[in-house]
């Protein structure tokens, strides 16, 4: 084993907290860019004089490239060091953000967004591994709970910041804002994040990585574009077939690989298997909420873009306050009670959202969003701690990558599931004329919205069940 080269870390009180703060700063921009761009997409469409079907690739390509190589980056961190992967990703993300802001055509922007997603995947994949390596097990949940603040703050700030930029500045500042943040974070992380253990005798499993890339790309495209292209279209059916074949190829390769990209033996652990599955369902339910609620706020209650962003911030702000507390408490009494309880609260919150009416007030919406945020905050930190604590130290990168993969795949699948429910029960939602619907169409839309929320509640309830199953035979931790 060897250490990746880095300047000596200055001695000081509790350097692990500086490491945590630096990783939080560096990880902030990825989820921010995942939530902010949709708000300014109409302005981007007008700026380049393009169709919305083409402009939709601006957020889509980012999510695809962000998701498809996370496992590879996690494994790369196990080999060459998490610090090195994190700094490379942060550097490339900052440069790609500048290029996005300077784009002169829609296709140029889409290309640079793809690069931005590839870079964001690096920081997303190894951030949790860096934190886990810096903290002892007795403080892991507390640290991951505090780390969740950066994710919740980014998701909460994104729509609001996007609304402000759309109203007062050019859409280009959505990307330019990343540059000073990125440079400051890069300098800070370079100074305080210590060199991590490397394994130069290990090598990357390129065949497994290729199969995983094809699988995730085809699966996410299938889920993301199914509604637009038609679920029974030749293109969508072909994508599903490719996903199934590449998944089988990935499993075949990994079982025969001496140094696999994803050690399938990790799934022998009930904690790792079921906690990872719970993370997938959690983000599916979370993005059910994030995806459909702005439609309700904008087209039923008639809120402005800025007001929609401010109301949507209620859920991640609640998560911001709850996550550190639940993480710290889970270090003392175990992760399972918080994971199960959190997802039960999420399910209840989503079910309560289904009770909203066309005449509901801002308060009616906000307190329900807060309930969902409390549930998410209770769940995420303890569940992440359970996953990271269930693997050997030399597999922290892969475990961190698994958490991030479940998050991004869950986002896409959640939108696909509730979108399918909403669009099939309320075709007007996909018609592009929500701003000018009749009373009967409004009733149809509200009916579809209710069942979409109920679908999200069912997904959250499934996550509660899988969280209950995520327990060691010997220990309840």
Describe this structure in words.
- The protein is globular and about 65 Å long.
- The protein has 477 residues and is mainly alpha-helical.
- It has helices at 15-27, 29-48, 52-55, 57-68, 70-80, 82-101, 106-134, 137-168, 173-176, 178-192, 206-229, 234-256, 270-300, 305-312, 314-333, 336-353, 362-389, 396-425, 439-469; strands at residues 2-3, 197-198.
- Helix 2 packs antiparallel against helix 4 (57-68), helix 8 runs antiparallel to helix 15 (314-333) and helix 11 (206-229) runs parallel beside helix 18.
- It has three domains: 14-196, MFS general substrate transporter like domains (Growth Hormone, Chain: A); 205-260; 263-472, MFS general substrate transporter like domains (Growth Hormone, Chain: A, Up-down Bundle).
- The longest helix is centred in the first third of the chain and has 32 residues, at 137-168.
- Residues 473-477 have low confidence and may be disordered.
- The chain has a two-stranded antiparallel ribbon with strand order 1-2.
- Helices cover 78% and strands 1% of the residues.
Largest sheet: 2 strands, antiparallel
Q: Could you tell me the radius of gyration in angstroms? A: 21 Å
Number of discrete domains: 3
CATH architecture of the largest domain: Up-down Bundle
Order of helices and strands: EHHHHHHHHHHEHHHHHHHHH
Query: What fraction of the residues are assigned to beta strands by DSSP?
Result: under 5%
Instruction: Examine the coordinates and then state which fold CATH places here, giving the name of the CATH topology of the largest domain.
Output: Growth Hormone, Chain: A
In DSSP terms, counting alpha (H) and pi (I) runs of 4 or more, how many helices? 19
Strand order of the largest sheet: 1-2
Low-confidence runs: 473-477
Please give the number of β-strands.
2
The top level CATH class name of the largest domain: Mainly Alpha
Percent of residues in helices comes to: over 70%
SS-derived structural category: mainly alpha
Going by CATH, what is the homologous superfamily of the largest domain?
A: MFS general substrate transporter like domains
Mean model confidence by pLDDT: 83
Q: Give the CA-based shape.
A: globular
């Amino acid at each position: 084993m060897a250490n990746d080269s880095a300047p000596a870390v200055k001695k000081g009180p509790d350097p692990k907290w500086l490491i945590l703060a630096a990783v939080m700063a560096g990880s902030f921009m990825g989820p921010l860019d995942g939530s902010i761009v949709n708000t300014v997409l109409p302005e981007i469409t007008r700026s380049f004089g393009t169709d919305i079907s083409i402009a939709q690739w601006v957020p889509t390509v980012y999510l695809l490239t962000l998701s498809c190589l996370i496992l590879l980056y996690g494994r790369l961190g196990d080999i060459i060091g998490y610090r090195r992967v994190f700094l490379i990703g942060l550097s490339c993300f900052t440069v790609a953000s500048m290029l996005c802001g300077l784009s002169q055509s829609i296709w140029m922007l889409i290309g640079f967004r793809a690069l931005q997603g590839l870079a964001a995947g690096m920081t997303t994949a190894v951030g949790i591994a860096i934190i886990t390596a810096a903290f002892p097990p007795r403080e892991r949940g507390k640290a991951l709970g505090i780390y969740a603040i950066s994710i919740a703050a980014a998701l909460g700030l994104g729509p609001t910041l996007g609304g402000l930029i759309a109203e007062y500045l050019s859409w280009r500042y959505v990307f330019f804002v990343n540059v000073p943040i990125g440079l400051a974070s890069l300098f800070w992380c370079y100074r305080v994040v210590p060199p991590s253990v490397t394994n130069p005798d290990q090598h990357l499993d390129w065949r497994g990585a290729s199969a995983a890339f094809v699988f995730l790309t085809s699966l996410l495209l299938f889920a993301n574009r199914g509604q637009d292209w038609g679920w029974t279209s030749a293109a969508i059916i072909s994508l599903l077939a490719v996903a199934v074949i590449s998944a089988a190829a990935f499993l075949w390769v990994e079982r025969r690989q001496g140094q696999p990209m994803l050690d399938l033996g990790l799934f022998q652990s009930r904690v790792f298997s079921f906690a990872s599955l719970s993370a997938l369902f959690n983000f599916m339910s979370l993005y059910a909420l994030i995806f459909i609620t702005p439609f309700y706020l904008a087209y039923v209650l008639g809120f402005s873009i800025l007001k929609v962003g401010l109301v949507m911030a209620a859920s991640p702000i609640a998560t911001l306050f709850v996550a550190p507390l639940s993480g710290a408490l889970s270090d003392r009494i175990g992760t399972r009670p918080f994971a199960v309880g959190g997802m039960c609260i999420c399910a209840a919150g989503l079910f309560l959202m289904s009770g909203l009416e066309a005449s509901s007030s801002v308060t009616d919406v906000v307190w329900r969003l807060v309930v969902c945020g409390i549930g998410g905050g209770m769940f995420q930190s303890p569940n992440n701690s359970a996953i990271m604590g269930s693997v050997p130290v030399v597999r922290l990168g892969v475990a961190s990558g698994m958490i991030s993969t479940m998050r991004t795949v869950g986002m896409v699948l959640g939108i696909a599931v509730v979108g399918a429910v909403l669009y099939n029960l309320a075709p007007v939602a996909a018609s592009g004329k929500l701003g000018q619907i009749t009373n009967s169409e409004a009733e149809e839309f509200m009916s579809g919205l209710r069942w979409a929320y109920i679908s999200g509640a069912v997904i959250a309830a499934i996550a509660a069940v899988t969280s209950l199953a995520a327990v060691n035979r010997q220990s309840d931790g």
